[in-house]
Amino acid sequence: MTGAGWPRFCELPDELADPASAAAAVVPVPYDRTSTWKKGADQGPLAILSASHHIEWYDLLTGRETCRRGIATLPPVVCDDRPEALADLLDPLVGGLVEAGTLPIVLGGDHSVSIGAIRGAARVVPGLSVLQIDAHADTRETYHGSGYNHACVMARVRELCPIVQVGIRAVDVDEVPRLDPERVVWGHQVNGPDAEPGWVERAIAGLGDDVYVTIDLDGFDPSLVPATGTPEPGGLDWFQVTGLLEQVAARRRVVGFDVVELLPTPGQWASEFLAAKLVYRFLSWVLARR
SS3 string of the chain? Predict the structure, then answer.
């Protein structure tokens, strides 16, 4: 257990979960103040950690027991204040991990948790770029009276560094003129009659050498991840997402990533396990390169 009785990622023993020596650190952020439809994303981090106890340590695609590199699970970052206050908490925490050479893995919570995490990474990594996997562009300047709402995440991030957006299939009309078509891979360009065979290459071409990846689970098709607050049809499948992540890990230096917007739902435990497996698989590829 860790923090206030929270489970450790993969239920690791003390020697593999020591923050002083671990290659990666999981940062649970049970925050859900900005969700605007279904609530409950604050329960997502705990569900992912619990599901991770059922992941096999041996990763088939890298041929390694990744967890033996060490994965610390830090105490949850709890904030009952506005998302701006949460960003101020996560900025120094995530920035400090990156600076120390530890890979931060932030588990949300609604997508607003990514703002402070990315700000911290960008502060210590000059030239950082961000890959977003998501159903929504999240580039509104303000939403429901806040510029730090989950619908504004990438508007704040692109003030810090270049972004590439993949899987987008829902935007507000006011967002469209501010989107760079060279840096957006629309959902219909991945799936359907307009699918582009070179979409992975196009996404990676827009990224710099150092990358932070933010993964909103509604980027997946809801047939795979129904347990999310704002599902959109026409999403990505497991192999499309992981295929992209494998290439990013192999060809860029990933300095951190987050997985957000899981909304635990009775009977939908496959969504929780997919999220946990996604973390472990991506972590395996990132650490294999380091």
Answer: CECCCECCHHHCCHHHCCCCCCCEEEEEECCCCCCCCCCCHHHHHHHHHHHHCCCCCEECCCCEEHHHHCEEECCCCCCCCCHHHHHHHHHHHHHHHHHCCCEEEEEECCCCHHHHHHHHHHHHCCCCEEEEECCECCCCCCECCECCCHHHHHHHHCCCCCEEEEEECECCCCCHHHCCHHHEEEHHHHCCCCCCCCHHHHHHHCCCCEEEEEEEHHHECCCCCCCECCCCCCCECHHHHHHHHHHHHHHCEEEEEEEECECCCCCCHHHHHHHHHHHHHHHHHHHHHC
User: Looking at residue 68, which CATH number applies to its domain?
Assistant: 3.40.800.10
Res. 193 pLDDT band, cuts 50 70 90: confident
Residue 186 in any domain: the answer is: yes
Name the residue range of residue 164's domain.
9-289
Query: Is there a domain that residue 2 lies in?
Result: no
Phi, psi of 106 (to 5 degrees): -90, 130
pLDDT of residue 1: 36
- Residue 1: inside a domain, yes or no? no
Structural domains of the chain, count: 1
pLDDT per residue as tens digits for the range 28-65: 999 998 777 788 899 999 999 999 999 999 999 999 99
**How much is the pTM?**
0.96
Is residue 4 one of the residues assigned to a domain?
Answer: no
